[in-house]
Amino acid sequence: MNDKAGGDAVETTNIISVTFPVRYSECDPLGIAHHSSYVIWFEEARHEYMRRHPADYAQLAEEGVFMPLSELRVRYRAPARFGDIITVRSWMSEVKSRRAIFYHQVLRADAREALAEGESVHICFDVKTLELKKIPPRVRALLERYLQEPGK
Amino acid sequence: MNDKAGGDAVETTNIISVTFPVRYSECDPLGIAHHSSYVIWFEEARHEYMRRHPADYAQLAEEGVFMPLSELRVRYRAPARFGDIITVRSWMSEVKSRRAIFYHQVLRADAREALAEGESVHICFDVKTLELKKIPPRVRALLERYLQEPGK
Amino acid sequence: MNDKAGGDAVETTNIISVTFPVRYSECDPLGIAHHSSYVIWFEEARHEYMRRHPADYAQLAEEGVFMPLSELRVRYRAPARFGDIITVRSWMSEVKSRRAIFYHQVLRADAREALAEGESVHICFDVKTLELKKIPPRVRALLERYLQEPGK
Amino acid sequence: MNDKAGGDAVETTNIISVTFPVRYSECDPLGIAHHSSYVIWFEEARHEYMRRHPADYAQLAEEGVFMPLSELRVRYRAPARFGDIITVRSWMSEVKSRRAIFYHQVLRADAREALAEGESVHICFDVKTLELKKIPPRVRALLERYLQEPGK
């Protein structure tokens, strides 16, 4: 799903976008999407990464690590309303020795301005010992392939 | 939590009741609890059974069975609103060779009439083979101890 | 979205189908979609009707009525798992003087057998008086256009 | 609900705490509370403020303003599991001319260390014009009464 007019192929593979309608059950008494819905939508974009790069995620398992969410930040700009078709765009914005950060934008599918944006910070645990550890070099190299400049 | 003034001890142990406020995130654009919330509340009453009768549920595990939900029915009478404190009352209404039925009522904590009511039907599977089977006699005897006349 | 190979045009317009992945946040500790998720998915199929037939729903408003859910029934056959792409198919299965019933099926998008099926029963209220009433003749005629034989 | 043994009265009124079990439907395939659940729990603590200080919130309405969430931050420390009884503690950590910040902690009810913590930032809108504005002096004075030192 290439949502960047004129974008080149390399950049495009680094940005995931998923599009779906705001569900009625996600809307609150003000008729707008409840703020917790954005957190779920962010995650759907991350899981779309997993669906598209199954080999990469298999490698995570081979290395014996998993990378749970350790921090979440959301900035709300304008409400998503019931009936809106929204697009979540997500990319890797930072990879360091001990953490990787996904950036997320929520847009109305027909608009260019974000309704909300935010980051999810992921850290690295050993599957067996459940101890925090550095991201293994091969996993880090893999994550770095998806790095994208913010705002693109 | 004895919610039956004058109720006798035997009956009281057979009715579970849980009480909590309607969450804002559970309310829809009409300002009333979304119909899916009742399904979650029913389950909270069933899990309260598990919390109160841990030995009985351990026996389920010993017998090598689990009893998932196979059918759900809800009848909506009047809306629960944000700010309402609601009580869910639940009891076992039927135990047969192959299924057990929990009955559930949702009431405003200060009222006697149900906002909604419904049943969850549970069937029996072998944990290892994942095959449908009859409820083992010891489990059935155990479930029958919690049988309660409807409407009580 | 015509999901019926060889289906004729008339039937197809009467069946709504929506397709989406099972969300991670919808899955429970067993790794399968929580039973309340199906209730939300059913509603998404009904709202897809509204999105496709805006004129019809405008007429509902003109007649001064709304048709909330009064009853819900779900029969669970097999679990939907995280990663499954599911399709919800929905059609009007009954229209009577005082109620209309939507039928819903949840299928894995690549399969023919339903994971779950169920009905939502809708009754008719006057928007102003909030009193229960018969479905107005023009609304009933409109709903009857979407009637579909069960199992199709 | 005084959760601070030996706490003095003034401090106690500034900290709201709500306690409830982790719901089964809130848990994900890892058997732990999904990260979006914490966002909902934070909000429940804020709404408990509203339930306890109805007069203050009435004044917000009188001033013709509302204070929606503009930013959310959550730091996850350790998982909440199904069956855990958790307590959310919340207080006002900052009041400035244009924003107020609620601080939230999620703890197991029987423990002293936080499973998660975070902030919700609230800004001020005119109910009629829907324009961003400074927090009116009377509202600001009211919010400042609930200020609490972080970590208390």
Entry summary:
Chain A has helices at residues 9-14, 35-52, 54-62, 137-144; strands at residues 16-21, 65-66, 69-76, 85-95, 99-108, 114-123, 125-126.
* Total DSSP E strands of chain A: 7
**Overall CATH class of chain A:** Alpha Beta
Q: Residue-averaged pLDDT of chain A, rounded?
A: 88
Distance between the termini of chain A: 15 Å
- Principal-axis shape of chain A equals elongated
Q: CATH architecture of chain A, please?
A: Roll
State the domain count of chain A.
1
Q: Beta-strand percentage of chain A?
A: 25-35%
Assembly type of the chains comes to homotetramer
Order of helices and strands of chain A: HEHHEEEEEEH
What does this structure look like?
The structure is a homotetramer of 152-residue chains. The first copy, chain A, is elongated and about 45 Å long. The first copy, chain A, has helices spanning 9-14, 35-52, 54-62, 137-144; strands spanning 16-21, 65-66, 69-76, 85-95, 99-108, 114-123, 125-126. Chain A has one domain (9-144): Hotdog Thioesterase (Thiol Ester Dehydrase, Chain A). The first copy, chain A, starts with 8 loop residues before the first helix and ends in an 8-residue tail after the last helix. The longest helix of chain A has 18 residues, at 35-52. The first copy, chain A, has four helices and seven strands, in the order H-E-H-H-E-E-E-E-E-E-H. Chain A is of the alpha+beta class. In chain A, strands 1-4-5-6-3 form a five-stranded antiparallel beta sheet. A two-stranded antiparallel ribbon of chain A has the order 2-7. Chain B binds chain D through residues 20-21, 23-25, 40, 43-44, 47, 51, 83, and chain D through 20-21, 23-25, 40, 43-44, 47, 51, 83. Strand 3 (69-76) of chain A pairs antiparallel with strand 3 (69-76) of chain D.
